[in-house]
Write a structure and sequence with these properties.
Blueprint: H1 2-6, H2 8-23, H3 27-50, H4 57-75, H5 79-101, H6 106-126, H7 128-131, E1 145-147, E2 150-153, H8 158-181, H9 183-193, H10 195-200, H11 205-231, H12 241-254, H13 259-277, H14 283-297, H15 301-332
Antiparallel strand pairs: 1-2
Helix pairs in contact: 2-8, 3-8, 3-11, 3-12, 3-13, 4-5, 4-11, 4-12, 5-11, 9-11, 12-13, 13-14, 13-15
């Protein structure tokens, strides 16, 4: 029983990836939910566990897309090495961005990450020979999953690719959950709650922030690589600051400080966006109203609302069970 409680969030994620194919008719849409949930996980590690509101997550998403695309197009590597390249590229760029950004606090940190986002966007826009410029990298192949020359899995159809992304997603979620439950995760929470006190007791705050940045960059870079393979293109939009905003919105809507909340936020954002865009071209305005509502009345996001409802019903059940006991005791008296 204790093991089930310890792995409850991983079990919820497994249930989620099993439910998506039963509720969605599009394998591409279901895959997109998991890919952006990966990106939101990386953002949550910074925002929810370290207290860093970064507007540079789109950098790592775009770099991961370009890195995997270039590896598949020009190096002709297999899928797994291409995804590892995307993770490595995201981690290295996060190391660079984090090295400069974490030395600032508050508004200055946010503005610096936004400046880096704009800088990398214009680099991608101008380096047309490498990134394709406005058009992006086109015709990225989707090779079958193989290891040491042996084919392990065919991923030509959307649902076959969803199966691969599911395995990767569950593994990464489990790994990140282990990290946030470890001493490293507790230290990040201490830095988030009181950075001055954490430094006073001897923690190297700068190093821990940088480690969080690198892990976040690697996870988001992986999401970018998976997205490029899914769509067959590494678009310029993946590295725009709008991508950073979208990832941040997913994290806030789901709820910062809990990894499963990022899954809820990404699923809500992607599915609601897909539905609203078919109804009204200006669906982002509705999403803006929703974000205002979350900021005003749902400080813990969708996960916090669900948690409050469960606690409320639990208390009501406890009262209902206690009433007959109280009545009987009165009669006995």
């Amino acid at each position: 029983m204790k093991n089930l409680i310890h792995f409850r969030f991983t079990l919820l994620v497994i249930a989620t990836v099993l439910i998506l194919p039963l509720t969605l008719s599009s394998g591409t849409l279901a895959t997109e939910v998991l890919i952006f949930a990966l990106a939101a996980l990386g953002c949550n590690l910074l925002l929810g566990y370290t207290g860093l509101m970064s507007f540079g997550q789109g950098i790592f998403l775009g770099i991961g897309s370009y890195a995997s695309g270039l590896a598949l197009l020009h190096l002709h590597v297999q899928l797994l090495p291409a995804l590892l390249v995307a993770m490595l590229a995201g981690a290295l760029v996060a190391l660079l961005v984090g090295w400069f950004s974490i030395r600032q606090r508050g508004t200055y940190f946010v503005m610096l990450t936004l400046a880096f986002s704009q800088m990398f966007y214009f680099l991608a826009y101008t380096m047309k020979d490498v990134t394709g410029g406005d058009n992006g990298l086109l015709n990225i192949p989707r090779p079958d999953l193989s290891l040491f020359g042996a084919k392990l899995m065919t991923i030509g159809t959307p649902w076959q690719y969803y199966s691969l992304v599911t395995v990767i997603f569950v593994f990464v979620f489990w790994l990140l959950q282990r990290i946030v439950d470890s001493v490293l995760g507790r230290t990040l929470l201490a830095i988030r709650d009181n950075e001055t006190r954490a430094a006073a007791v001897g923690y190297d705050v700068t190093m821990f922030k940088l480690v969080a940045f690198v892990i976040s960059g690697a996870v988001t870079g992986l999401a970018g690589g998976l997205h490029a393979v899914m769509t067959g293109i590494a678009p310029l939009s993946n590295i725009e600051y709008h991508a950073s905003e979208s990832i941040l919105v997913m994290t806030v809507i789901g709820g910062a400080g809990n990894l499963f909340a990022s899954v809820l936020g990404a699923a809500f954002y992607v599915l609601a966006g897909n539905w609203l865009s078919s109804l009204w071209p200006r669906w982002l305005m509705l999403l803006g109203f929703l974000l205002i509502g979350v900021s005003l009345y749902m400080h813990k996001g969708l996960y916090g609302v669900a948690q409050s409802l469960l606690q409320k019903f639990g208390r009501q059940g406890a009262v209902t069970d206690a009433e007959p006991l109280n009545g009987n005791s009165l009669k006995e008296k």
